[in-house]
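Instructor's aside before we start: the two examples that follow are unrelated to each other. I chose them only because their records fit on one page, so don't look for a connection. First example below.
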Amino acid sequence: MDHDKTPVLEAIDQYRRGEYYTFALPGHRFGRGLDNRTAAVLSRSTFESDVIMAKQAVSEAEELMADAVGAKQAVFATCGSSISIHVAILTVTGPGRKILVDRNVHKSVVASLILAGVQPVWLRPSWDHERQIAHPAPAADVEAALERDRDIAAVLIITPTEYGTGADVRGVAEICHRRNLPLIVDEAWGAHFPFHPDVPTAAVQAGADLVVQSLHKADGGLCQASMILVGGDRVDTVDLRLRLDLITTTSPSALLYGSIDGFRRRMVLEGRQLLDEALSRVRDLRARVSKLPHLSVMDESINGHDGVAEWDPLKLSVDVSALGISGYQAKDWMQEKRRLTVQLGDARRVVCSLTYSDDDVSFARLGDAFEALATDPPKADRPEPRVPELERLNLEQAMPPRDAFFAETEQVADPAGRISAEMISPYPPGVPAVLPGERFTEEVAGYLRAGLAAGMKLPDASDPELKTFRVVRE
């Protein structure tokens, strides 16, 4: 196939060059009705490219993408990977059925379970006590779970994690396929994986049946640009598109489609070189930061830890706890003192998402910031986070998520022993610490309250101050 083509971008360009006028949507008339303030900030050309008719070229662009990454089909989505996850789950399962799911999934997966009325069977993560983080569950745990419960109809795993640790997708796929079960992989951070051998194996090439990717996370797409890749023949692709049609917008953004289209072209033509250069810069930066006092940097030695089959070197995870501060404070310091926004701050570390778009100047700036932080760290300015023994974060699923979410509820100050009716998700990464149907414990309530005081972001809590929690009324 001719990967120099960009069907969506060409359709937008053709419309803009033609003497077309529309009495249909969009009502801004391709920027004609724009005020100067909006044009100054968002650019008039953005609105000139908002050509909804360009969606007619999406089918060809999807065929090119599928060919580029080795998928049976590619399905573009413009409402973010949250919607793509909903579509994937609604396609392979439905009300009353069971699905084996990584417990450290993004909150969108839990929302999908609620929407679909699906009963989760939780696959517990591999807890890393040394680093106080969760890694993917080993393939053997997947096999054991499927042996215990023969009613499971599908499997969903997330890889890589926000920290860059990747699951054994090939091993999990083989286990699922021996039972003729479809495997969904939330590979939000991995749209570039098919284009270089030194990053984790692309899930669709490792045997996954449905793969969800976010084009904006580590790649060249606009926010909300997402796609679902289909591998093999276990998923009915007609059903897939019907489910997408059920919940997606009928007015998709050509800007998002065009960004996916342009990303594919660039990766096929230049991706190997771009990622070569990015990986080289990352190696140099990781070596520099690793030499700084009191900072500990995750590296390739993480490979082989329980559940870690692969590792994404484009994630820079730096433990700052030896400086006497939390990752929450370090993240805020980077923002306030160095005007640098990092991907994640947690109880112990900051994580930077590095991409081929970062150049030598930006890498040097980040290295300088870590050097300044290590040389003259700020004094602790907030309470310390309290992370319980990690297994204490494994909560009992006392009710199905859907039943708990739609139950009669009340707000209580002491939730211990009560069944949660809400999701509370430290963000990023957006993995719920507690979700509907799980039974609160004192440890989890204390962990969340201490985390909030230390700087943890909890955008979905019913009470943003955590004075009360939403529980199922008894």
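Example two begins here.
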Amino acid sequence: MNDRSDQAVREIIIVGGGTAGWMTAAALSRKLAGTDTNVRLIESAEIGTVGVGEATLPQIREFNRMLGIDEAELMARTSATIKLGIEFRDWGRAGDHYIHPFGIHGEPIGPADFHHYWVREQADGSADEFGQYCLPIVAARENRFDLPPENPSSPLHAYSYAFQFDASLYAAFLIDYATERGVERIEGKVMAVESDGEDGLIRSLTLESGEQISGELFIDCSGFRGLLIEQELETGFDDWSDYLPCNRAFAVPCAITDPVGPFTRSTARSAGWQWRIPLQHRIGNGHVYCDRYISDQDAVDMLMDNLEGEAIADPKQLFFKTGKRKKLWNRNCVAIGLAGGFLEPLESTSIDLIQSGILNLIALFPEKRCASSDIDEYNRLMDLEYDRVRDFLMLHYVLNQRDEPFWRDMREMAWPDSLSEKIEAFKRRGIVPRYDHGLFQPASWLSVFIGQNLLPETYDPRVDAMADDHRSRELERIRSSIDRGVGRMSEHLAFIEKYRANFTGRPEDAA
């Protein structure tokens, strides 16, 4: 057998810290433990990070579990609250509201999918609102939460949850984790990049101090600048501004005035939308908008006028462009986080896209020469991930029924074929997309379709094999079971206090 140890990557250089850099460093320190591979991270205290990505998706729990992180400790150290889904207000018509949950609607009651039975019942005018058949939605509305049972006896209890946390505290948590496991942090600014003249691979970086840092695999977590992936390798960028034109945001925290619930909120505004993310110690707020339809001053005034508590900092303005690099892995450089692409945080996908980039890299971890087959497969997987998130975000916009110029233009713009096909399939026959790769599965699409008033023209004919009174009883049984289950749950804040008590770290950790 050939000894291929001389082909193993020994030096990994991560450029940039923040959430992307330290998630990457933490994961690599875990997965490469016991090997001869060194992981070093270069960041400068003078270069800030975006730092507003506070809401997550349930997949973050798998990432934390992979690292062996205790959830109670995580919640104590990041001021986290629980997230059962995202509430959308005014996205269909003014006054509408619905929740995209981390769980399913209903349960199997026949050969057709549950929503077809609900559509049939809705046609008779006797069905409750769709969200009443989903346990995490009812729990979110009543500010209740308990951990899902490990072995649920009913699909009604097959729900998940995520966290709403302070992203800067999460990064600090991961700094401790990674450095304790051998990751070396290097303070400094990268001033020059040296590449091989023959194969174009990056060989070393020169810092402002003059120090030269050599490596074999480089991970670009430098944010929108794309220091390596774009400024050095000129990879190119797929601009999706025509599909998702919001290009600016203001972010500001405010004081808590009422007990916080276990969900994030997105409220449609005249030229964009406003987020609300409740933490244990403050509320995170932001206004995402398109500057072609509203001025910066009007945008920040709209945000400040709609805070529920007193602002506890000055609003911070952010600028961005929706899209992704043409390749997220180019030569011996992998772009993770904002260096690879940006999709507005409407569905809290920023941290999940970081996680996907990390896990795909670990699965395809290269040798020194970075085989083209590995690079191509990584880019294929990440392209699918970004494309399908883009389509799902667009779905919220194109299904609106609002009357402002921004919203009319969003309805009338050209849609990707991949999105048009999904909408048409549901509109005609109630078919919901399913795929192996991609973040959002049928329950998510159903939430937005029905939440924004798109009902199928027909339902699965197998529904009619069930007698009307039997169908009505089954739907009532499900709704009543959910109400009973939610009634036994803890209040959200009471759960947090109880859960935090499980962490017995240093007093300052739980402060």
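The CA atoms of residues 355 and 446 lie 25 Å apart.
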